[in-house]
C-alpha cells in the first residue's frame, strides 16, 4: 500500500493518529480544570508508567485541553544535571504571556513578571563573570524581596502564589507540565511539593501535572511524606485489546483499509499492547501489505522490520549508553526476569542478581545506581529492580554476549 498514506506514527512523544484507551485520564483532567477554575480544591496530577506507554503524548494532550480552556500553560523536561529554577522560569513566563492579553491591568502583569525575573536571576552563580550569566527575556525590572531569597523552596512558593493570583484575576488557571519528573533533584522535588501544598491550602488556581517512571511516587514520598495525599496519581499502562484495535483500525479506516481479525490478533501479540510498539508494528505492516484487507501473513512478513527498528532505535540506543559493568548487570536481570516462574520483565531481587554474578550486593551498587540515574532501570520496591522499557529483558536475551 502507499507508504505516503501510512497513518502510523512511532515517534518519541509523537501523538498517534488515534489516541485510544486514555478517555478516563482525559475526563479526570477535564474535571480538575473545571473545579480549579471554580475555586474548588483539587490536587495536582502525576502520571506514571514505563517508557513507550505514551506518558509524554498524554501530557501534551492534557496541555492542549488546558489551553482550550484559556489557561496559561508551560512545559519543561526535567534533567538530572539541571536545577529546576531556570526551566520553571521559562515555562511560567510562557504561561503568563498567555494570560496577559486577558488581563485588564498591564501593570499587574508586569508586577508578577518582575517577581518571575527576580526568581529567574537567582539561577546565576554569584561568582560567574557577567558574560557568562543567564539573562531571562523578561522586559521588566526584577522585583525585590519576593521569590529572590535563593532558597528554592521559599522562592517557588512565593512565585507560584503570585502567578496563581494573576490567573485568579482573569478567572482562569495556570498549569505547569513536567516531563521526566523523577529526574528532579531531591531539593527541587521537596520545593515543588511544598509549593503545591501551599497552593492547595490556598485553593489557588495553579496545578502541576507531572509524568515519570513507575518509581516517581516513591521519589515524591521520600521528599515530603504528605505527597501521597498531595497528588492524584494515574498509572499509565499498556492498551487493552479493544483500545489497541482502535489505535490500529480507526486510522486505517480513514484511508479505506481494513484488518482481518487474525492480523489484529497477531499485532496485539507482537506489540503487547504498548502504544509505541503498536505504532511501530502498524507502520511496518502497512508498508509491507500489498492490499486491503491486511492479513496475518502481512504482519508476519513485516514483523522483522519492526523488530529491527526497535532493536536499533528503542532498545539498542539505550543499551549503548551503559558501561560494560552496567550491561553485565542488565544481562543478569534479563536472565532472571525470563525465568519460567516470572512474568516477562518482572521485577528482580537485587540479591538474586548478586548471586547470579557471584558478587556481593554492595559491590554492584554503583552499577545499579548508575542505571537508575540513566533511566534504564528503576526500583519500585526496596530490594528489587525492573527495566523501565517494556520487553527490554526479552531483547537482551536475544543478543550475543
TrEMBL record:
Region (Disordered) location: 1-20
One Pfam family here: AAA_16
Gene3D superfamilies: P-loop containing nucleotide triphosphate hydrolases
Keyword check for Heme: yes
Domain of life: Bacteria
Keywords: Heme, Iron, Metal-binding
GO MF entries: electron transfer activity; heme binding; metal ion binding
PANTHER family: ATPASE DOMAIN-CONTAINING PROTEIN, DNA-BINDING PROTEIN-RELATED
Name of this chain's protein: Cytochrome c domain-containing protein
Amino acid at each position: 500500500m502507499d507508504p505516503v498514506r501510512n497513518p502510523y506514527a512511532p515517534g518519541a512523544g509523537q501523538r498517534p493518529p488515534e489516541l485510544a484507551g486514555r478517555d478516563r485520564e482525559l475526563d479526570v483532567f477535564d474535571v480538575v480544570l473545571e473545579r480549579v477554575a471554580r475555586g474548588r480544591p483539587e490536587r495536582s496530577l502525576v502520571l506514571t508508567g514505563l517508557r513507550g506507554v505514551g506518558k509524554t503524548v498524554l501530557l501534551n494532550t492534557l496541555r492542549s485541553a488546558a489551553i482550550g480552556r484559556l489557561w496559561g500553560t508551560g512545559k519543561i523536561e526535567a534533567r538530572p544535571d539541571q536545577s529546576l529554577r531556570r526551566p520553571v522560569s521559562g515555562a511560567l513566563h510562557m504561561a503568563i504571556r498567555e494570560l496577559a492579553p486577558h488581563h485588564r491591568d498591564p501593570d499587574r502583569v508586569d508586577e508578577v513578571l518582575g517577581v518571575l525575573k527576580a526568581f529567574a536571576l537567582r539561577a546565576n552563580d554569584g561568582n560567574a563573570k557577567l558574560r557568562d550569566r543567564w539573562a531571562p527575556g523578561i522586559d521588566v525590572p526584577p522585583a525585590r524581596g519576593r521569590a529572590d531569597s535563593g532558597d528554592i523552596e521559599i522562592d517557588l512558593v512565593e512565585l507560584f502564589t503570585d502567578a496563581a493570583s494573576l490567573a485568579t484575576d482573569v478567572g482562569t488557571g495556570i498549569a505547569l507540565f513536567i516531563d521526566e519528573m523523577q529526574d528532579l533533584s531531591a531539593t527541587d522535588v521537596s520545593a515543588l511539593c511544598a509549593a503545591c501544598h501551599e497552593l492547595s491550602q490556598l485553593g489557588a488556581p495553579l496545578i502541576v501535572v507531572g509524568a515519570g517512571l513507575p518509581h516517581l511516587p516513591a521519589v515524591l514520598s521520600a521528599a515530603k511524606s504528605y505527597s501521597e495525599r498531595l497528588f492524584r496519581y494515574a498509572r499509565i499502562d499498556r492498551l487493552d485489546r479493544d483500545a489497541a484495535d482502535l489505535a490500529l483500525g480507526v486510522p486505517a479506516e480513514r484511508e479505506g483499509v481494513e484488518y482481518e481479525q487474525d492480523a489484529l490478533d497477531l499485532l496485539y501479540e507482537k506489540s503487547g499492547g504498548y502504544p509505541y510498539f503498536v505504532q511501530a508494528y502498524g507502520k511496518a505492516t502497512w508498508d509491507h501489505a500489498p492490499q486491503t484487507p491486511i492479513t496475518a501473513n502481512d504482519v508476519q512478513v513485516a514483523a522483522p522490520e519492526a523488530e529491527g527498528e526497535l532493536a536499533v532505535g528503542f532498545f539498542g540506543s539505550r543499551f549503548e549508553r551503559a558501561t560494560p559493568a552496567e550491561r553485565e548487570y542488565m544481562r543478569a536481570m534479563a536472565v532472571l526476569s525470563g525465568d519460567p516462574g516470572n512474568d516477562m520483565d518482572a521485577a528482580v531481587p537485587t540479591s538474586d542478581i548478586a548471586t547470579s554474578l557471584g558478587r556481593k550486593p554492595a559491590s554492584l551498587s554503583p552499577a545499579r545506581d548508575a542505571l537508575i540515574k540513566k533511566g534504564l532501570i528503576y526500583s519500585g520496591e526496596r530490594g528489587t529492580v525492573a527495566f523501565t522499557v517494556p520487553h527490554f529483558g526479552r531483547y537482551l536475551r536475544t543478543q550475543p554476549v
